[in-house]
Specification:
Helix content: 55-70%
Largest sheet: 2 strands, antiparallel
Shape: globular
Order of helices and strands: HEEHHHHHH
Low-confidence stretches: none
Distance between the termini: 28 Å
Mean pLDDT: 85
Structural class: mainly alpha
Strand order of the largest sheet: 1-2
CATH architecture: Orthogonal Bundle
Number of helices: 7
Radius of gyration: 16 Å
């Protein structure tokens, strides 16, 4: 990764964290689904990002959001788990020929079908960890699954919307 890409990811991260803290902090879908748009920074890192780098970025991003939310590491736990599970999930959904060097797993690069099979399970895993740690022992399993389901749908829809509005197309998305 060159310095230009690094600065681009840093700027993108600052924008996403600012949106999360100032806009999406109080946004809830029917009082159940929360939006975690900032995690698309982790999800859109290049596929060949080393696991240690991915874990450090994930933990740091979650810690920054925890500082603004005044939570005790809930976001850091979820994003660190996301950074851990992402390479494993990428191997599971790998195309036959593998991935090209430096490919970013975005809607524009990979297409709609692949992107949905990528982002929906990963956001669901993040939400499961987040709500399990958040409600440790006070919510039942069905309530955690309910919140995780609606939160992952809302996050995935907003991630697709952000990409459709702010990223130029490189090839057809269907």
């Amino acid at each position: 990764m060159n310095i230009r890409n690094l600065l681009s990811y840093l700027a993108w991260g600052i924008i996403l964290v600012a949106l999360q803290v100032f806009l999406f902090k109080n946004l809830a879908l029917f009082g159940v689904g929360l939006c975690f748009l900032y995690i698309i920074l982790i999800l859109h890192l290049p596929i060949n990002t080393t696991p240690i780098t991915l874990l450090l970025i994930s933990f740091g991003l979650g810690l920054v959001v925890d500082i603004f939310y005044d939570t005790g590491g809930i976001h850091a736990a979820g994003t660190t788990f996301l950074g851990f599970i992402r390479p494993l999930w990428l191997r599971v959904i790998s195309p036959t020929g593998g991935y090209d060097e430096g490919t970013e797993p975005t809607l524009q690069e990979m297409g709609t079908g692949w992107y949905l099979t990528y982002i929906l399970p990963l956001t669901f895993f993040f939400c499961i960890i987040f709500f399990s740690v958040d409600q440790w022992g006070t919510l039942g399993l069905l309530n955690i699954l309910n919140k995780s389901f609606f939160s992952s749908i809302l996050t995935a829809l907003l991630a697709i919307l952000v990409q459709a509005l702010f990223f130029k197309r490189r090839r057809g998305i269907l």
